[in-house]
Amino acid sequence: MTRLKIVRSTLVILLLASSVCMAQTVVLVDPSVVESPTVGEDLKVSIKISQGNNIAGYQFTLEFDGTALEYVTIINADFLPAGAFAIPPKVNGDKVTLAATSLTGGTNGDGTLAKATFKVLKKSDSALKLSGVKLSDPDATAITSKTVDGKIASELAAIITKRPFGGKSLKLNAKITTAGAPVTALRAVSQDAGIAKAGTFIEYQVKFSNLSVLKVGGVYVHTADGKVIGPSDIAQGMRLQADEDGGWVHSRLSLTPVAGKQIAAITVGTKVDSAPAGLFSMLVDNIQLTNGNKMLQPIWLSSANAGDPVSAEPYGDLVGVESLDLDVSDDVKIAVEPKNKVITIWGKIKNFK
Q1: For residue 216, which phi and psi values (nearest 5 degrees)?
Q2: Which of 162-171, 221-230, 325-334 shows the lowest per-residue confidence on average (mean pLDDT)?
């Protein structure tokens, strides 16, 4: 084998190893957020797995608020191969532990490990927390995983559909280098956001600078198996509400096309096949997971998250831009001054002809 072939083979091995590492197994409570039923009714949740690889056994502990919920039952579901058996669950106060194993091989992909039922004692905000999660292959070799807990809301909040002028918001700024070339410039605002559900949405407000050569962008959803959905030219033209004074528009992204898939990340920015060269500039606020009527979960709200640190690195590779800056900035009016100068939405003065 020549040295060149050896180098090529080594690169292929490294790339394959990298792709395997990226597809990390996730064990999660589903739904990730649920409104509490009335007192006396049952609350049912599932413990799901995403990106499983040769899974032949599992064990986990589910912790709940004993003042709000009463444990009823938990059962092994259908992710493991037929014939798998579960050890009777062990209940210890506000915790229940379940373990199951298969003697006929492992299972790959996404699915449901177990189903749990609780009786509602009182409507209150609480959590369903996973701990002690153990996964194994048919040889009893441990498989690493991440976990995502669940939340129970006593009452879901109203969707934020208007963004008043002023105050802080997420600011993105990038320089597109080549006209007509693809552009990808994204930063993560949330990761491991649960399983996408049909009939749910990501809703948010977005505002583009009048100096931006590209006005397609906003919020994107990335699934664990590599699919990406986000705004398009058509979607940008179908905004639900516009604030003529402040320039903010309300946008909605349906999660139905990726229903059943694990959401690996929610990002902000732009991803297009072709763009003009120049400045891309955008403000985003009030990113929410909704059911179309109520907010299921806040993702990034200026009212709650303006003081939080933002992602320091791009999500994935930057394509077609020199850099992508993301920070929290004031929303200020765009104004034109004498002598061909423009004050941008970030208060910077730029010459133009």
Answers
A1: -120, 120
A2: 325-334
Tell whether 260 and 330 lie within a shared domain.
yes
| Segment (H or E) for 321 | strand 321-330
Average pLDDT in the 270-277 region? 96
Examine the pLDDT at 235 and tell me if it is beyond 80. Answer: no
Domain boundary among 86, 121, 155: 155
Tell me the three state secondary structure of residue 329.
strand
Cβ atoms of 36 and 152 within 8 Å: the answer is: yes
Q: What spatial distance separates the first Cα and last Cα of the chain, rounded to whole Å?
A: 60
| Domain span at 136 | 24-155
8 occurs within a structural domain = no
- Co-location of 184 and 269 in the same domain: yes
Report the candidate in 78, 99, 102, 104 with the shortest Cα–Cα distance to residue 89: 99
As for how many domains the chain has, the answer is: 2
pLDDT at res. 246: 64
Is residue 202 domain-shared with residue 148, that is, in the same domain?
Answer: no
For 272, residues 6+ apart whose C-beta sits below 8 A from its C-beta are: 182, 183, 214, 216, 217
Strands of the sheet with 181-191, listed across from one edge? 181-191, 263-275, 218-223, 228-229
Residue in 325, 350, 327 with CA at minimum distance from that of residue 339: 350
Mean of the per-residue pLDDT values of the chain = 86
CA distance 269 to 204: 13
Residues 133-169: b if buried by 16+ CB within 10 A, e if exposed: bebbebeeeebebebbbbbbbeebeebbeebeeeebb
Residue 339 forms part of a structural domain: yes
